Amino acid sequence: MFQTSPIEAATQSDLTREMATRLHTALTTHLQQAYAPDQRKQLRNFSATEVADLLGVTGQFLRKCHSDGSLPEPTIIRNGRRFYSGDEILRARQTLEEGSRSAGKYLPGRRGDDKLQVIQLMNFKGGSAKSTSAIHLCHYLALNGYRTLAIDLDPQGSLTGFCGIQTELEFDGASIYDALRYDDPLPMSDAIVRTYFPGLHLSPARLVLSEFETETAVNAGRGVAFFERLSRAIETVQHDYDVVIIDSPPALGFLTLTGLYAATSVIVPMTPSMLDLASTQQFVEMTSAYLGVIEDTGVQLDHDFFSFLITRDDPSDIPSQQIVSLMRALFQDRVVAATGLRSTAIADAAMLKMSIYEVIRAEMTRSTYDRARSSMDAVGAEVAQMIQQAWRR
Ligand SMILES: Nc1ncnc2c1ncn2[C@@H]1O[C@H](COP(=O)(O)OP(=O)(O)OP(=O)(O)O)[C@@H](O)[C@H]1O
Ligand SMILES: [Mg+2]
To answer: Which domains does the chain have, with CATH numbers?
Structure first.
């Protein structure tokens, strides 16, 4: 099991290698316990109340659909109560949409020539809740009937881990790096996997993705401009999705910039502290300089929205609330009205690489769960509204 004896190493490289080995063992043990018995993540089942809520119908309507046969019964019925798998929810959406008079009521995704929405979460401040916000948006949108693609542009692979692929355990499949690399890149469709979460696909990240930074420096000026690489890759799969959510690394390097160019909208997650405010200022200033460089090549960048999202919000903390008020005064509706509340429910779920949508309410303090869930729902609903607005609905 774990080595806990003091480390004795002859050199610094031996010392750090031993540290890496111990951390690897601890991580894999933790993950194997979390995913036992088959080490694969699965989505929980949803109660009828939750499903009615997600579909925007009453419980009575849902029961009627089952009794008149317009919707098949879910596989799991315990003590007369129905529980739905993610796939069953998705199928119910499809069936109800087919029978619905108003298009888009159950499947709110693209219609006609609606443009694919590519939303990048970025901020070079580490720990500003980019990945946490990204996975919650992915799950919210997928549960609400949007065909969603998650792209993990962070070599650390946090979003990949949330999507059930443990790069710390075994993973040797293709990743986003393979679609972006300069040397014989793979088609984007080969760098995408389905996840256990219905409606959500993922282009995973592995550590090798960091090579993109050095390779870009070496290949500068040759072939397609580096910043176009991701958007070109996304273009080849765009018909399969309504929304793409991009998580980025805590750096403003070539990876973040190729994301920024592909993005139709940008969200800058920010924790309301003085340090984060200062860091975000620097980040936005640098972003402006880089965007200027891209624009100077003759490219016109046009983002549908470019907004701040307050994360790890604590309404009882007065200094942080002053920063929230300042942000709202400075940028009005460019600050998402809903905030990601700081919550132990979210932090606890993250320990198991889960979003709040995967947690079973009864297994948590209900009020804690409810507050966290409604805050993430509110952020998701606002982003969905922005998406609909971009489609002029
Ligand atoms: N709403 C929240 N409530 C409590 N903890 C949170 C919340 N959002 C994020 N966290 C915690 O804050 C930490 C940082 O979050 P996260 O990893 O999402 O940030 P990040 O910006 O992606 O970090 P990095 O810059 O390293 O990529 C994590 O431990 C996460 O669990
Ligand atoms: Mg992250």
So the answer is: 46-98 (1.10.1660.10), 117-390 (3.40.50.300)
